[in-house]
Amino acid sequence: MMEISSQKKFTQTLEEIIEQYSISEPPEFLKVLTTLPDSPDKDKMFEDMDEVFRAITSPSELSSKLPKGTTEDTVAKELAKIPDSQKILNEEQQKMVELFIEMLSSSSSNESL
User: Fold this and answer.
1) 3-class SS at 16?
2) Please, are residues 79 and 85 in contact by the beta-carbon 8 Å criterion?
3) Does residue 71 have a pLDDT over 70?
4) 26 φ/ψ sector (left φ>0, alpha ψ -120 to 50, else beta)
5) CB of 103 closer than 8 Å to CB of 48
6) Which end of the chain, N or C, is less packed with Cβ atoms under 10 Å?
7) How far is CA 20 from CA 42, 79, 82, 92, 95, in A?
8) Measuring CA to CA, how many Å separate 17 from each of 25, 51, 112?
9) Which pTM value belongs to this model?
10) Closest C-alpha to 82, from 62, 100, 68
């Protein structure tokens, strides 16, 4: 079984996001990233970006606890009824921030990229 490259994995994640949100064209930054020479640092960068993009676009664990028919207008009211919802949302957001900071830290320390 052949292992999928981190670039290909990230590209697939991005394509899923593009389709999910009906975006007409791939973002320009993807074209730039794919032209970078292959290296372990580039692989790590794509792994980090894939993890960040998946975290950002994954539904909250609270999604399954919201009643059917919840709208943008009623979501705050419904979330208030769920015990620890604010804490859970805070933890999810903190995790995304940490992933994003880690991604930026690892890429900024690499001058070749």
Assistant:
1) helix
2) yes
3) yes
4) beta
5) yes
6) N
7) 26, 24, 27, 21, 23
8) 11, 13, 28
9) 0.65
10) 62
Both tokens assigned to 23: 């975006």
Whether the CB-CB separation of 62 and 88 falls below 8 Å is answered with: yes
Under a CB-based contact definition with an 8 Å cutoff, are residues 98 and 55 in contact? no
Q: Is 59 helix (H, G, I), strand (E, B) or coil?
A: coil
**Residue 34, both tokens:** 């794919």
8 A C-beta contact, residue 55 and residue 15: no
17-21, 53-57, 65-69, 106-110: segment of lowest average pLDDT: 106-110
Distances (CA, A) of 103 to 6, 29, 42, 73: 14, 15, 12, 34
| Rounded CA separation 51/45 (Å) | 10
Helix (DSSP H) and strand (DSSP E) numbers for the chain: 5, 0
3 SS3 class: coil
